[in-house]
Design goal:
- With 355 residues, this protein is mainly alpha-helical.
- The protein has three domains: 21-58, no CATH class; 93-113 and 218-355, no CATH class; 115-215, no CATH class.
- The chain is 68% helix and 2% strand.
- A hairpin with a 3-residue loop joins strand 1 (250-252) and strand 2.
- The protein starts with 22 loop residues before the first helix and ends with a helix.
């Protein structure tokens, strides 16, 4: 779909702007225009490349085209939002509204009782798993063991609270084993494909998501989660702004044509500054630890985004879902955060070990 307001041309019909006018209307307009000798010969394209339509050549009393101003207003009204959308690459108002709403939910869970954040992670993991399983089924006919993934994903998240990393590993191993057994009922045809997709989904969504839950468990868990979230959001905002304003050199044109090296530079700057400030202010750590953490999270978030772009290109889909206006599905928002959660848990655990 064109984002510039132009309507795509179809065979035998020129491109048109605004509303289409029936051909009999155009012929009547030509006949009326000929009577005052003010219209060009029939079939002559208008300056904007369209055929004459009813009202286009009718003259007003002042000698100006009567419908020309209305057509310009109509075109401007139709093209204005689309131009903003094409430059932004998405519905910016809806995207900002959804992003703010998600941020409020996360902040509320952390500030009211930090363990509520585990519930937010559990819901996100379930929805993300559902979306990924649906995309695999619709686009490629791949059937994952969805009941096993949903139950096993919840086990990974909730068992990490009392048992930490041991609970996560045990739940993931059980999910993988049961998933392999579950698929045996359908025979050998497509077994490796479906089991491989089940293991991929288990690792990609609930396993990675549980590391975000592990971040909140220490006494300074709120600061760790906020550092992780702030760095990833700053990376997204900085990369988006720099890419829109100065993006010239594609970063991975065959994977994500809209990503540019200039946008990645903006992500690095924003994420590094955000990391330095967050670690210093929220975790009482050295600024350089925060800067390194921010840079690593930017790199991981960018690679996570590219990995999901590869998955969607392989499946031939644009979005994983449609539940979030301006974003697509929830997985289209989690793509960068899931792998970054693991890196945040690892780096902060090494640089700022829990006492």
């Amino acid at each position: 779909m064109s984002l510039s307001g132009e309507t795509a041309a179809v065979p035998g019909r020129p491109a048109r702007r605004g509303k289409a006018v029936p051909s009999d209307g155009a012929s009547r307009s030509d006949a009326a225009a000929k009577s005052d000798g003010s219209a060009p010969p029939k079939g002559t394209p208008a300056p904007d490349g369209t055929r004459p339509s009813s009202g286009t050549h009718a003259r007003s009393g002042a000698g100006e085209p009567a419908a020309n101003g209305a057509a310009q207003v109509s075109d401007g009204a139709a093209a204005g939002p689309e131009k903003r959308q094409s430059r932004a690459g998405r519905n910016l108002v809806a995207a900002i509204g959804v992003g703010v709403g998600l941020g409020v939910v996360i902040l509320a869970s952390l500030l009211l009782e930090r363990h509520f954040f585990i519930g937010v992670i559990a819901i996100a993991a379930a929805v993300g798993t559902w979306e990924l399983a649906g995309a695999l089924r619709r686009a490629a006919g791949i059937t994952v063991a969805l009941p096993v993934l949903l139950v096993g994903g919840q086990a990974m998240v909730w068992l990490s609270w009392p048992f930490g990393l041991h609970g996560l590993v045990a739940a993931f191993g059980a999910t993988a084993l049961v998933g392999m057994i579950w698929r045996m009922r359908q025979g050998a045809d497509g077994y490796l494909r479906d089991v491989g997709a089940t293991l991929f989904a288990a690792a990609y969504v609930p396993l990675f998501a549980t590391f975000a839950a592990l971040l909140v468990l220490p006494s300074d868990g709120v600061g760790r989660v906020l550092t992780f979230m702030i760095c990833v959001v700053a990376s997204d905002v900085g990369g988006y702004a720099a890419g829109v304003l100065a993006g010239r050199h594609p970063m991975a044109p065959s994977i994500s044509p809209k990503k540019s090296w200039e946008g990645f530079a903006g992500s690095i700057v924003a994420g590094t500054v955000a990391g330095a400030l967050s670690v210093g202010l929220l975790l009482d750590g050295s600024w350089w630890i925060g800067a390194i953490t921010g840079a690593l999270l930017v790199a991981t978030a960018t690679l996570g985004d590219l990995c999901e772009s590869l998955v969607k290109r392989d499946l031939g889909i644009k979005d994983m879902g449609a539940m979030l206006p301006g974003h697509g599905g929830l997985m289209d928002r989690l793509d960068s955060m899931l792998p970054a959660a693991f890196v945040a848990w690892l780096v902060l655990g090494i640089a700022l070990p829990v006492g």
